[in-house]
Write a structure and sequence with these properties.
97 residues, two-stranded antiparallel ribbon, alpha+beta, elongated, 2 helices
Length: 97
Amino acid sequence: MLRRLGFHSKWIQWVRGCLEFASVSVLVNGSPTTEFKPMRGLRQDDPLAPFLFIVVVEGLVELVRQALKAHLLIGVKVGRYELESCMLQFADDKFFL
């Protein structure tokens, strides 16, 4: 998705490196444990999470636009100009109508 949005390959490598090579430790009674590699995805409060969410949602929005054009989804017309929409988004929540 980053490539499709026009990000440079160096930037994509940096993001991938942050996700693949990160290690974490846990504070137990104020003392850190031995570092370990997380097994899946992002960690809680990861600063990359909002950025990556937006990137993924851009792909989803494009798929929804294509489905509307192909009449695979039916949206509702909103406003004076009757813009068609079939989903609402607020922060990290999505709602399909």
